[in-house]
Amino acid sequence: EISACLVGSEMCIRDRLELISHKILTAPQIDKLLERVAKDPGFGTLSQVQKRNIRLARKAYDEETKLPEQLVFETAKQQTIAVGVWKRAKAVRDYGMFRPELKKMIELRMKAAEILMEVKGTKTPYDALLDAFEPGMTADRITEVFDRMREGLMGVIMEVEKSGFKPDISILSRPVPMETQRMISEAAMEFIGYDTKSPQAGGRLDETEHPFTTGYYDDVRITTHYHEDRFPSSLYSVLHEGGHALYDQNLPKKWIYQPIGASSSYGIHESQSRFVENMIGRSPEFLGYMFPKLKKIIGRTLRGVKLADFISSVNNVQPSKIRIEADEVTYGLHIIIRFEMERNIFAGKIGVDELPQAWNEKYEKYLGVEIEHDSEGVMQDTHWASGLYGYFPSYALGNIYGGMFLQKLGRDVPGWKKEIKKGNFTPVKNWLIENIHNKGKLYDPADLVKQVTGKNLTVKPFIDYLEKKFGKIYGF
Questions:
Q1: How far apart are CA 50 and CA 358, in angstroms?
Q2: 447 has pLDDT over 70
Q3: Which of 81, 85, 66, 76 lies closest to 108 in space, CA to CA?
Q4: With 50 as the cut, is the pLDDT of residue 2 above it?
Q5: 333: nearest Cα among 246, 216, 166, 459
Q6: Does 401 score more than 50 pLDDT?
Q7: What pLDDT score does 16 carry?
Q8: For residues 382 and 329, what is the distance between their CA atoms, to the nearest angstrom?
Q9: How far apart are CA 454 and CA 411, in angstroms?
Q10: Which pLDDT does position 36 carry in this prediction?
Q11: Which end of the chain is more exposed for a tag (fewer CB within 10 A), N or C?
């Protein structure tokens, strides 16, 4: 199959590799080995870690074997086609061009979801898709939490608007050469302890169009993108991706290549990146330490700028149209919109033809912004073209998890803010490693949160954090 593709397109090769991967994961020998282990008289004496490994392996095998090879192949092929068409359609602002490919992708994911409902034990197709990203989470539970989150976020936005205070965001667009920004990146990586220089370094920073993190354990690499007229963009992308990297680097080495030797979920992973980027990186304490360094590195470009002005500018709250440009407060509303639409798509309540209008109406209702064309609206993200339905909620759940972790950190390490102000991230980093990174995939996300904080999932700590932080900045 591969040799037949070598004379064909790159797309064909990727599709065939996806099929081969599926065949390997569903080899009958795996089922036989798992059966032998489960029936062995000594199964009850296995440790928690061993039993978890077996459970995760069985879950992965049962789910993968339920999916027909042809469906796996067609989905992989459609992902490539749909993303290619999405790029072209977005460039020319033509949703009609993208619509048939999106429709086919949704139909393929619905087929998979309906098949996986039984083996995953979910009530709905969308719950089956969610489980791939947030194991054990359901649309009903997310709806309950997101409804409270939406109410809390809109309340903070209202207080910000009522305050009348407008940060001077022109500070952020002052030109800073890329070479200077690379020095800022070095300072940020040094602060969080992401090593790219020593002989034992397991990290690396490169440049790309859109920042991402890749790798595991002792080889985890991050990327960033530099904008001469938006220098904080690279600073915060380095902190964000660095948060992801620290998680991957500090998974237990003894669990490498085992099912348990991975992150708990996409949302827990996002909690770590946004914790480092926002809860640390945009905090007055971190900025109190970093701002003098920035002024020294950047030079006269920041002459006359006061610390308070810089803190308020990088924490500016302004509803916007584009998710990846959203501030810490409004970001969650972008995710809630996507979740509600996905939930309705897979419940059969909304069709592909209706998506643009539904999107635009929600942006007007939740964020008070008017979408002018579909490329800044329903086509702004690649996730739906890629078939990643159920992924979006993880971003906002990451904020909620992070709020709960922050609250517990404050109880366990009461002096952490003073240490951050001195440039010492170690106490916070060690707490994250001990409580989250070192747990790997020992627990599903909701169970991990309960294990760490002693509480069930709740949005209150995150909203309390926002109200306290932005109340000080905006004076409410």
A1: 47
A2: yes
A3: 76
A4: no
A5: 459
A6: yes
A7: 72
A8: 23
A9: 12
A10: 96
A11: N
Q: CA 171, 174, 179: angle at the middle one, nearest 5?
A: 130
Tell me what the pLDDT averaged over the chain comes to. Answer: 95
Q: Is the pLDDT of residue 7 over 70?
A: no
Q: 37-62: string of b/e by CB count within 10 Å (b at 16+)?
A: beeeeeeeeeeebeebbbebbbeebb
Q: Catalytic residue among 63, 64, 101, 241, which?
A: 241
DSSP three-state, residue 212: coil
Number of other residues whose CB lies within 10 A of the CB of residue 457: 18
Q: What is the DSSP letter of 216?
A: E
Cβ–Cβ < 8 Å for 170, 302: no
* 438: Cβ contacts below 8 Å, ≥ 6 apart: 250, 251, 252
pLDDT at 42: 95
CA distance 428 to 432: 6
CB 219 within 8 A of CB 253: no
Q: What is the DSSP letter of 275?
A: I
Cβ atoms of residues 152 and 141 within 8 Å: no
Question: pLDDT: is 15 or 251 the higher one?
Answer: 251
Q: Work out the number of other CB atoms within 10 angstroms of the CB of residue 331.
A: 20
pLDDT number for residue 22: 80
What's the Cα-to-Cα distance from 470 to each of 94, 197, 414, 461, rounded to whole Å? 39, 37, 21, 14
pLDDT of residue 21: 82
Which helix (H) or strand (E) segment is 77 a member of?
A: helix 69-92
Helix, strand, coil % over all residues of the chain, rounded to 5: 65, 5, 30
- 74 belongs to the catalytic site: no
As a three-state string, the secondary structure of 362-426 is HHHHHCCCCCCCCCCCCCCCCCCCCCCCCCCHHHHHHHHHHHHHHHHHHHHCCCHHHHHHCCCCH
